[in-house]
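Quick one, T. Sequence first:
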Amino acid sequence: MEAAGIAIFTVLGVIIASFLNVCIDRIPEGQSIVTPPSHCPSCQRRLTARDLIPVISYIWLRGRCRYCRSSIPRRVLIVEMATGALFAYLYLQYGLSAELAIITPYCCLFIVLMVIDLEKGLILNRIVYPAMVAALLVSVFLPDIAFVPGIKNAPIGGGIGFGLGLLVAILSRGGMGFGDVKMAALMGFVIGYPRIFFTLILGAIIGGIIAAVLLATRKKKRKEGIPFGPALAAATIVTLLWGGEILTWYLGLF
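Structure tokens:
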């Protein structure tokens, strides 16, 4: 029975990831995520059902449009496979529960934010602000879920995230943008106080590693900007998945 659940949630994950890819493509362009139907951005040909089977269609078509042979971003496949694996893991951790119903949308949210910032260098208000409101409502109505911070710690976490993010943005003189500040505030609303502290630290570590790799491989030059949002989003997902264990380990150091 558990194997069947894992299989179902893996498939569900890749299907939802297909929608996440639509969000990643369209929201930065100010386009509707509902209409028009899925189509090739190069030849504008409407895609059929066989072109839209998550993972399978990409592999079968070798990452190219069936009609004009233009390349499909490899990100499409990566997001689908990663989200499928993530959903399977979350099902194993939480089963069919309220926790699963909350953590899966949160992870999807930060996947979308991560990829948009990575590709476009944008952290969009139209995503961040509604997500803040939703996170606050979750903390009000579902405070008993393990990783939900509750009505007191959610706004405190949001305030700390915003304050620390703003301080870093000021001190770095443009090294961290205001979009990252808003991301830090959203993180605080989602994960609350005190987890916001080590999540920001973890984000800085991940960001430093990414920057070092990009500089070492000469994919970025020292004066080129490197998006920090993906590191913050990744750190938030890690905290959502293993925040309790991280906090217990961290407090055990003192």
